[in-house]
Design brief:
The chain is an alpha+beta fold and 478 residues long. It has 23 helices and 11 strands.
Length: 478
């Protein structure tokens, strides 16, 4: 009787999982997801990944993350089948026959990205870590024939960190550092905000456990009190706005532990001085309404000096627009309020504003900015953007068409213009290496010096003892 009850409960749990996996898709999609899940579960068996996580558990977790991002059926199927090549001969052909070429291509793309995590691990030069991380973020995008592969990679990393949170592993700190340096900023850049926050919080928890626990404890000690505070503040502000005839959406803005830590560190302040631990966001229809809300908020609560920013009149360099203010709220506790129109909100979350530029403290090139905007649009459901299924195909050819990212024998990423040759690679690494260049191996094979490099090529320069650059290098026929 117990086993029957357990089986029924297990079946019910699986039904709920498949409901989540198929959410937002046509009803026929559920059957395809069930078929892919049965195939993957049988294929993976009890096999585990390097992190110690069972392959099937990881696949299911990835697919659920993909569903939460509202990605299409092919992407969710590819998540379930992500490790097929590790357990199946002629995987590409069999996946194409069973689930279609797009799914097989996505799974193949995931396989090509798998080894990239080793690049940062092999880079021992501390002074170049930031530059390497920056190039690798671009490389993750450039090497993928389909941007959905990058989204799946983010889903995979999120699931890995979730597993490591419950099952510590020897490489947990290394995975966390890479997640914080590369994957969280990448998630930020392409607008996958809730993955960014989760990646940051989990990675921070592994890297700075004492600081994480201290901030978490301070938040938890005040959680009920803070929730009551937010409810009271929302009710008071909504009442005043309604009395003024304003239609507005007011809600509490969640604060994440890593973002609190970052603010404490960057501003050199204590936890008590982080005003936006308690925060509201107000969305209205028109710009004039933003200033009306600001006036009402400042009327009912005392503004905190030097904590007001008008990014509507003076947008940030990335065109981010919003009003930010901090006030002494109910119980004489600080409260941050962000006020923006719904259009500004869409802009900040998905559009040209590109939140990542000011959060990461630098300004992007216009061409790279444009590409990131395209990536953000790809996250929008077709019903909202009017996009056709071939939108991805139309954009992929233009993504990073002007750059090539090659690897040195040490695993360092070298950023080159499209059409670059081994000589360009050598001079890019160091002038003396270029002067002494006599030949090159690409992916282990000897190639001519005018060989055009492709993304992901591993390049080894063969040198002479004495520098002897030649003008013949500029003549293709020679």
């Amino acid at each position: 009787m117990v086993s029957v009850t357990h089986s029924i409960a297990q079946a019910g749990a699986e039904d709920a999982q498949f409901d989540l996996l198929a959410e937002g898709l046509p009803s026929a999609a559920r059957a395809q997801l069930v078929r892919a899940a049965d195939f993957a579960r049988g294929l993976y068996g009890e096999q585990c990944l390097g992190s110690g996580e069972p392959a099937w558990q990881h696949a299911l977790g990835m697919a659920l993350v993909a569903a939460s991002l509202r990605l299409d059926l092919d992407t969710r199927l590819a998540a379930l089948l992500f490790a097929s090549a590790d357990f199946l001969e002629d995987a590409s052909e069999k996946l194409t026959a069973g689930f279609g070429a797009p799914v097989a291509d996505l799974v193949g793309g995931l396989g090509r990205l798998k080894g990239l995590q080793l690049v940062t691990a092999r880079n021992e030069r501390a002074q170049s870590v930031k530059a390497q991380a920056e190039v690798l973020r671009k490389m993750l995008l450039a090497m993928s024939a389909d941007i959905r592969v990058v989204l799946l990679r983010l889903a995979s990393r999120t699931q890995t960190l979730r597993h490591l949170a419950e099952h510590p592993h020897a490489e947990r700190a290394e995975v966390a550092r890479e997640s914080l340096d590369i994957y969280a900023p990448l998630a930020n850049r392409i607008g996958v905000w809730h993955l960014k926050w989760e990646l940051e919080d989990l990675a921070f928890r592994f890297l700075e456990p004492d600081t994480y626990k201290r901030i978490a404890k301070m938040l938890d000690e005040r959680r009920v009190e803070r929730e009551q505070f937010i409810e009271e503040a929302i009710a008071r502000l909504q009442g005043e706005l309604a009395a003024a005839g304003l239609v507005a959406e007011v809600y509490g803005r969640p604060k994440h532990i890593y973002s609190i830590y970052s603010k404490m560190k960057s501003k050199n302040i204590d936890f008590a001085e982080v005003y936006d631990v308690r925060a509201l966001r107000v969305l209205v229809d028109e710009v004039k309404d933003c200033y009306t809300v600001l006036g009402i908020a400042h009327h009912i609560w005392q503004p905190i000096p030097r904590e007001f920013d008008d990014y509507i009149a003076h947008p940030k360099g990335n065109d981010y627009r919003s009003l930010h203010t901090a006030v002494i709220g109910p119980g004489r506790l600080p409260l941050e309020i962000q006020i923006r129109t719904r259009e500004m909100h869409e802009h900040a979350e998905l559009g040209v504003a590109a939140h990542w530029q000011y959060k990461e403290g630098r300004k992007a090139e216009a061409s790279f900015q444009q590409k990131i905007n395209w990536l953000r649009q790809l996250l929008e459901p077709a019903s909202r953007t009017g996009a056709e299924p071939d939108l991805l195909d139309g954009l992929q050819a233009e993504l990073f068409e002007d750059r090539v990212y090659a690897l040195s024998p040490r695993g360092e990423v070298v950023d080159l213009p499209r059409g670059a040759t081994p000589i360009d690679f050598a001079y890019n690494v160091h002038t003396s290496l270029g002067h002494r260049c006599r030949g090159a191996r690409v992916n282990g094979r000897m190639v001519p010096l005018d060989h055009k490099l492709a993304n992901g090529d591993s390049v080894e320069i063969i040198t002479s003892k004495q520098p002897n650059p030649s003008r013949d290098w500029l003549v293709p026929s020679l």
